[in-house]
Amino acid sequence: MVRLLIASVLIAVCSVAATAWLAVATTTRALREEQGQALADDMDILARLSGYAAAHPDWKDVRTTVRDLSARTGRRIALTTADRTPIADSAPPGASLPPRAAATVDPLRTDTYSEPGAQLSGTDPRVVGPYRLTADERSRLDALGREQQDCFTRHGIDTVLTRTPSGRTVLTAADGVAAPDYVPERCAEGLYDSLTRTEEKALTVLQGQVEQCLTREEPDLSRQLFLAPALTGGTPRTPGPEPGLVMKGEAAAVRAAQDCLGQARRAQLDPYVAPVAELFLGGGDSATGPRWNMSPANKTKVVGAAGLVLAVTLAVTAVVASRLVRPLRALTEAAQQPPDRHVRVPVTTRDETGILAEAFNDLAERRERLEAQRKAFVSDVAHELRSPLTNIRGWLEVTRDGLVEPDAELLGALHDEALVLQRVIDDLRDLSAADAGTLRLHREPVAVDELLAQVAAAHRLAAEAAGVTLRAGPGERTEAESGGAGWLDADPVRLRQALGNLVTNAVRHTPPGGTVTLTGRRDGDQVLLEVADTGTGIASDDLPHVFERFWRAEKSRSRRTGGSGLGLPIVRQLTDAHGGSAEAASTPGEGSVFTLRLPAAPAPHDG
Question: Which end of the chain is more exposed for a tag (fewer CB within 10 A), N or C?
């Protein structure tokens, strides 16, 4: 049981550990992917709404954009003013907003949008405002850009033309990230890098606003200010929203000028962008819940973990099963041996298998002992039957040959031998009936004192002939039992037979001058019938075998001196049939006591 429990616990631990590890690994990976996807979706939502705000002066038509983004990402998207007045919401009307805003949508002050063209000022490069080129200016710059691209191509430099939000085309390297590292001299000439009328006008206005700010903050720096749009080389190359500040002075003064430039630019672009809005993001209200869509990698992990647990389970089960089956196989092999080979199996454990092995060894020993008893029984039966038959045959043969006259003495001897033969056969029949459970008892109320008196009277002559005194006494009784030893519900004939066998055996083993005593007494709900003698006694090693068939304490004694060996077994069988038990106690040299314990019965007048 302990081994099976340990195996089950080990398998359960392996299964739980593998499942926990797999769940943690896959869940962690899924959470990371989900977090990354959610972050990417949030950044995309913010970028899309910031781009809308950069290109529109208000939020009037943003609802369509909000619904499209919500449908694509599965998130709830809500836009409100700073005082939480709803602008657009993908959720049904009346739905409460999340406790905190996810971000602020302000294209003039953003630090979450990274796109080539954004400077330290944090202005979305898609805010172009007054710097948006006219159609004619875009066409002219496109043509100039293609001419310059052809120039680069002739010098072996691959470039591409890209259009900025203001409409100007810029020339970048083939990877689309930066301008070409080398610019040929011929390709650097031309009108492509010059400002358009729109850009000059917007920059002039911006220059005036910056100078007004510096006049208030740093009057000495106003004459040193020059705005230089980055039209050639480096990144970004978009004029207008991100102009460069060229001036000389202390670092603190330069920072003051940068602050004025930022304030002036935001003031210049503010009329062209939507008002500042608060962005709220939620989990969404999609009717379709998440589906279990296991990736191939996770499927591989699940299959691998299941296979590993299965392999461990099979290995542990095989080991435990082999250890459990090994002693059972030994028992099976031992049980299949021929009856003449009494094989024992080693007992290596104290569990159920060890107990079974001990029981098997006990059965093997018992079978060996029974086999020996069977052989001795057959030999003894043959001997017991052969002796009287041989005597009868011998006397009959000499009488037939005329050597002996068939007188009364000879006929008496033949009759005695026939009686011995009949007694052995009757004893064997009684034992066979008792073994088969067919021994019939004719029960009736039997007084113990009368039973003892009858047995003593029947065997007194034989005892006197052997020089043995036979007495029948009441035994030790209490005051309550002064009326007698009690009553039995038994077959009086069978009880007289059992007590007679005990008396005969006691007289046979008691030397002349000895005494055999029959007593009966009440012991609780039992009646004890005792036959005590003052004979030679029985050795302690032989005492457990006195009720075995054909057993004799002295093997050399013949049936005339030692009996047939069936008397005491018959006593035990008859006592068992009455629901009692037979016991023997002896002290060598002092005598023996045979006791029959039988259930007591009420007196007839009490019934």
Answer: N
